[in-house]
Amino acid sequence: MPLSRRSLVGAGVGLAAAGWLKPFASRAAEPRFATDPFTLGVASGFPEPNAVVLWTRLAPEPFAPGGGMPSAPVEVRWEIAGDEGFKQIERNGTAYATPEWAHSVHVEATGLSPGRDYWYRFTSGGVRSPVGRTRTAPARDATPAELKIAVASCQHYEQGTYAAYRSMAADHPDLIVHVGDYIYEGRGQRAVRSHDASEAITLEDYRLRYAIYKSDANLKAAHAASPWMLVGDDHEVANDYAGDHFLDFEPALFHSRRTAAYQAHYEHLPLPHRFIPLDGRQRHYTTRAFGTLVNLIMLDGRQYRSPQACDGGPLVLPCAELVAGERTMLGATQEEWLKGALTGSRARWTLLGQQTLFAHVDESVDKEVRYWADNWNGYPAARARLVDFLAERKIRNPVILSGDIHAFLVNDVNTRAGEPDSGIVATELVTSSISSNGRPQKDYDVWKPKNANVHIARSDTRGYLRLSVKPERLHADLVAVDDIKRDDSPTHVLAAYDVEDGKPGIVR
Ligand SMILES: [Fe+2]
Hints:
The protein is α+β, with helices and mostly antiparallel strands. It has helices at about 5-20, 20-25, 165-170, 205-215, 215-225, 250-270, 330-345, 380-390, 440-445, and strands at about 40-50, 50-55, 75-80, 90-95, 105-110, 115-125, 125-130, 130-135, 145-150, 175-180, 230, 285-290, 295-300, 315, 350-355, 370, 400, 410-415, 425-430, 455-460, 465-470, 475-480, 490-500. It has one domain: Alkaline phosphatase D (PhoD) (Purple Acid Phosphatase, chain A, domain 2). About 20% of the residues lie in helices and about 25% in strands. α3 packs parallel to α5 (about 215-225) and α4 packs parallel to α6. It is globular, with a radius of gyration of 22 Å. Bound molecules: fe (ii) ion. The site of fe (ii) ion has 6 residues, from loops.
């Protein structure tokens, strides 16, 4: 049976990493690079007790078509060691970087030991990459004393520096969680810095956009410091797209744009092979256990959702469509999968990493009630299904990690949405943006008093969340960037909150 081009390429990436792909091996060239091919750095991701994904992309000229690479497969050696000096190399192999996948490399390094640091690097054409540090997840039955997690979202290149990543890299967290808007497909306003690429539509456009973003030294440092887990949001594709819908685009036209965007997303991030896009779809949702301490569930609230309700958004007056029971944020398949992931967890803390604001928030600055149609307030029936499930099944210590709104928020998630006295089911920590502009603080100051479940709402600062998860307590620092115009800006802790084991909501 003849393989389609797509399935052959997809299979090639998977097999190459396993190190036994003969057809490519016989064609692969030993390249000679005039300049450094590792301009986009190295990265690791999706750690398991015995495995981690290692990533790089060969691009000696990252802003040129094809990254300045020949249109032929290229051999890349990879090594992972137990020490920074690579005296104890634990695993190594050869991968094949192919032009069909922008000469990116995704290695699933296996046979590692749980809960420890590793260092990795790549070599091609006699040139060595920078060294990255990664860390495997603890053993399934281990209870680590602490897990350190950083949470990031929304990194508009033109609207600010990546000083937040400089600070995050210096923290050396066990894991960095990114909940979306890793790139922006459009152009920026109120710019701090600029690039001259036009709006991304084609595969080459999206590749260029990732190359521009990933040329930033602070972002590369954060990738080289810790393993990442990511889920894309809308701007990796197009603003506020919902499932197969984007504005009034012809479905077929939008489908091809989204297919290009998903491919570039895979090519530029340390994603497992099962996230290879196929037929215009890309798996994003998954779960990782960190011993018996943390179960982290990453959700995709973008690809399977119903279109936004009540035309005229983004901030809408509730209409009949908004509250319709059949509307979905995750899609039926993912919703069922999530129930299994929640009940199957044995961990003390259940972290849900996902894109948009989850808790009930009325963002109206006048006398009406208004909801942001693109976040969970635009999908109240879907939110109620998840809240009811968390409550009925007594899921342990649910903490929702969100982004998207370019503001820090800390929220109680109540049993009944909009009723702050109805009991607390979960805590939500919303990270501000790494660099994207926030909406005016004065609007937040007006609507916050109307929402007793919201403890802080700060849209006037960029930054990230720094979590320390211990068996008895989760501590969250809201880390703020002092000066978004400076690459080397210091950061400070804007506020800090704690959640105690068995007591949903923040410690007061
Ligand atoms: Fe954003």
